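Provenance and format

Records in this collection were gathered into a single text stream. Each protein contributes a sequence line and a token line. The two records reproduced below are adjacent in the stream.
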Amino acid sequence: MLLFYKAFILFRIAQFVIVALAPEPFDTSSLILVAEYMEGKVPHYPTFMITILNKLMAWDSVYFLKLAISGISYEHEWVFGPLWWRFLSLITSIMPNPDIYDVLLVSIVINNLCLIASAYMINQLARTILKNQFVKSFVGPKFPEYASLLIIIQPSGIFSLIGYSESSSQLLCYTALLLRQKSLGTTRIRNKHLYEISGFLFALAYGLRSNCLLYGIVYIYDMIKFPYYRSKLTALFTGLLLFFSLIFSIYVPYQEYCPDRGEWCHSLTKSLTSYAQNHYWGIGFLKYYTSNNIPNFLFAMPQIFVLFLSLCVFSNWSVIRGEWLVGVIYLIIQIFWMHIQVINRVSTFLPLHILYVAYLLSINRSLGKAISAWWTFWVLLQTGLFACFLPPA
């Protein structure tokens, strides 16, 4: 792992140098929030550091920082990972008189630690997969090592380093996938406790990013796959942990606003999150298919291509069939329902694209090197764009 740590540190330094050298942000609206929360306070960080931190308060990170400081004010804020900003609030509450810069710095530290831990988890996940005789017959021995290194240059880039919940949800998902893999036998669930912990971790991950709910698919798959009644019950119980987290996320805001709020209170799902995503962000079937979003489709195409290729290759890897099914459903939803450009950061909850490129590198395919080079270029470019408050978000 020494190579990983060296590469990790050097790449992060490069990113922060880019942020420091980037021009002042195109949109300075986030500085209004800074002024509001810094009123009567004197920043206790050097000027050069404040300049860098100001550039890292852009897009949705502003929401997470605001929520960590003052909680929910408006209903659309319920869509932002409730566990993530509450966790940030809890950590910063032990600090003496914390300000918005403290919250941002805490999120940066936590996210970098989560990335390091995620690299370890995907390394172990790759080693577990490599024990499968079918996979072992044609995958190179450096497969796990490459998987770890690719976490550094994954296309989520700067979004995995700052106020977003991508890194924390990635860590929980990768840990859950590893525990589930270790708990499975050929025809039954061998370790019930590890298996159930995986479901609990996915439920927590759902509280950080709603797309993690898709991992309920792996438990449905296990229910169908395993012939033994006891394994089917274990898969059902574990999957219900995710289902109950969904019900809880619907129930809490419903109790807060309904029935007086109307509209979404009377919808079929009773879900504020679904309503807010549709009403405030325009998420829905083909809603993003407009001419002004062509640049966003161009931003997304490389990652769509990589994820699609990974699904093609892994379609006959039975050892990760459950993860493959999640990837298929996610890609369909991402392309036809969601804001297309967010695939670069949201897809971090899946390990498939990382494992695919690691597989290519392990067998010395030039495509693996080309994708790695593109990711490196993209992340550095994206870092500069983000620091200037420019798309993609």
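Adjacent record:
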Amino acid sequence: MSNVGKKFKTRYKSEFTGEGPTGVCKKEKVVRDLGRFVLIDFGYVTTWCFTRELDEVEE
């Protein structure tokens, strides 16, 4: 099951808003020993994250 196009929220909280930033998954990779990575576009930065560090946003 692909996560591309889904919205995710980080589990880390911002100092200012008290919420984690929300972004859209652009690409997904599986690394055998490390797990699943997704490329998340937050609007101001695009970065690779572990899927275990993210929560899917229900719409």
